[in-house]
Write a structure and sequence with these properties.
It is built from nine helices and no strands. By secondary structure, the protein is an all-alpha fold. The chain has two domains: 3-124, no CATH class; 128-159.
């Protein structure tokens, strides 16, 4: 009877090691919950309402994870990382470090979000279809862009 008790005690000890909960090392703090509206605008160049109601549904419509492998990065973190990258013009490693994400993952996330936003550009950006010459001249008058030589080169090559 003592051997059975020792065996059960040994199995229970082994199970105690097997059932240790997995530690989550990544801090997935939601920037929308942490920062005030002014701080969000300073960091991401968008207010909370625009991020929540326009950008997040546009980039991640179902707001769900593609997979639950490993430790998936929530869509809001992905979007905020890309927005921070766009707003600061910083390096991927720096933006990733701010959110405890590797440079390689930051690169993939920024690429993913950029491609999704680029697919939606025609819905939000409309270029004029008439009076193109007048618009080019106005650009030049305002900002001297493009240079006259370039402008003439473009006009000459169009015909």
């Amino acid at each position: 009877m003592g051997d059975l008790y020792e065996f059960i005690q040994h199995v229970e000890d082994d199970l105690a090691y097997l059932l240790i909960p997995r530690q989550v090392l990544r801090d997935n703090t939601n920037p929308l919950e942490v920062y005030t509206n002014n701080e969000l605008y300073q960091r991401y160049r968008f207010c909370r309402n625009t991020i929540q109601t326009v950008l997040l549904p546009m980039v991640y419509p179902q707001n769900n994870q593609d997979s639950n492998r490993g430790l998936p990065i929530p869509p809001i973190i992905k979007l905020c990382m890309a927005l921070r990258f766009y707003a600061t013009g910083s390096y991927q490693r720096t933006v990733g470090d701010l959110m405890a994400i590797s440079q390689a993952s930051a690169c993939r996330i920024i690429n993913e979000v950029s491609e999704i936003i680029a697919r939606h550009l025609p819905l939000y950006i409309k270029f004029p279809e008439n009076n193109i010459a007048r618009i080019r001249n106005r650009f030049y008058e305002i900002a001297h862009f493009p240079e006259k030589e370039v402008h003439l080169f473009i006009v000459m090559n169009r015909f």
